[in-house]
TrEMBL record:
<feature type="region of interest" description="Disordered">
    <location>
        <begin position="315"/>
        <end position="336"/>
    </location>
</feature>
<feature type="compositionally biased region" description="Basic residues">
    <location>
        <begin position="327"/>
        <end position="336"/>
    </location>
</feature>
<dbReference type="InterPro" id="IPR013520">
    <property type="entry name" value="Ribonucl_H"/>
</dbReference>
<keyword id="KW-0269">Exonuclease</keyword>
<keyword id="KW-0540">Nuclease</keyword>
<dbReference type="GO" id="GO:0045004">
    <property type="term" value="P:DNA replication proofreading"/>
</dbReference>
<dbReference type="GO" id="GO:0008408">
    <property type="term" value="F:3'-5' exonuclease activity"/>
</dbReference>
<protein>
    <recommendedName>
        <fullName>Exonuclease domain-containing protein</fullName>
    </recommendedName>
</protein>
<dbReference type="InterPro" id="IPR036397">
    <property type="entry name" value="RNaseH_sf"/>
</dbReference>
<dbReference type="GO" id="GO:0003676">
    <property type="term" value="F:nucleic acid binding"/>
</dbReference>
<dbReference type="InterPro" id="IPR012337">
    <property type="entry name" value="RNaseH-like_sf"/>
</dbReference>
<keyword id="KW-0378">Hydrolase</keyword>
<dbReference type="Pfam" id="PF00929">
    <property type="entry name" value="RNase_T"/>
</dbReference>
<feature type="domain" description="Exonuclease">
    <location>
        <begin position="56"/>
        <end position="221"/>
    </location>
</feature>
<dbReference type="GO" id="GO:0005829">
    <property type="term" value="C:cytosol"/>
</dbReference>
Amino acid sequence: MDAVWKNRAIATDVSLKVRSEPRCGGPPIVPSECLGGVHIHNKANVMSSSDLGNARLRVVDLETTGTDPDSDGIVEIGSVDYVVEDGRLRIDQTFEQLANPGCPIPPEASAIHHLTDADVVDARPQNEVVQAFQEQPSAIHVAHNAAFDATFLSDNPDDYLCTLVVSQKLLSEHSKHGNQYLRYALGLDVGEAAGRLPHRALADCYVTAALLAYLLTDETVDERARSLIAELDRCEPREVALSPEAWIDISNQPVIDTVYRFGKHRNTPWSEVPKSYLQWMLGQGEDAWDQRVMNGVRSEIHRRRVTAGLEWSNSPPTLLGTDTAARRHGAGHPWS
């Protein structure tokens, strides 16, 4: 087969315009049994209309030829839209299109999503598919690992609600946080994804959409989210309204591992790792470790210094990740 590859340009930014709600002072959430046909195990809640307003939440997933947006291309885009009506989530529309990436699909990528050159040779060029995707109504974009999908779409990952990071922050009792793992760990009913091949764009969107519904409605997650935002904004959890900007701010908080997961002290809580080893790790430099590992080291050293009276508890350590202080106080929001 002689494949013709062309038009590798990636589309320009999308401006997200969403009504911003005050974070504190919202009324309490109200109970419900299911959301838009997606049943949620562990009795769920529907948000108050003041939490997300009339927001449109677009769950996005891409399949690509690799992981580098500068040299790899998009082969499929999928999305599932949730709309919030009267405080309830409802699936409104879906998007699913193959794209010609302008370069061959390596077998390593095909082994994940099972798409080959033959599947996309007659598809529209990726820039046209991205444009069609972006012509949908404005929405808050949601992705499981937003840093990956947003970068390929030339978007700012900081403007996305990342269900991966939110899960890592609010479901830390789970050892893994991939959407397929959480699908089974949480007992999610993924609806349309049940009969689809995993790691195709729309199938993964349905799984992430079910996870999103769980995160937005589960009582335990709700309490943890409100506590986290209350700590950031120095107010009481009962005063917190989980607006779109609040969820995005959770997405942008540094993820801290509570357990050292490899090496000499594998599966040891940071609180039990010897001081000398923590100091050795810190001395290796930031580039020697994953951000989550370095954040764990810094947080544990800070905790011990506070306990010993050497630091104030209100002077937190400098963690690696996005600084959202300006975002949380109203500056820099794409919809402000």
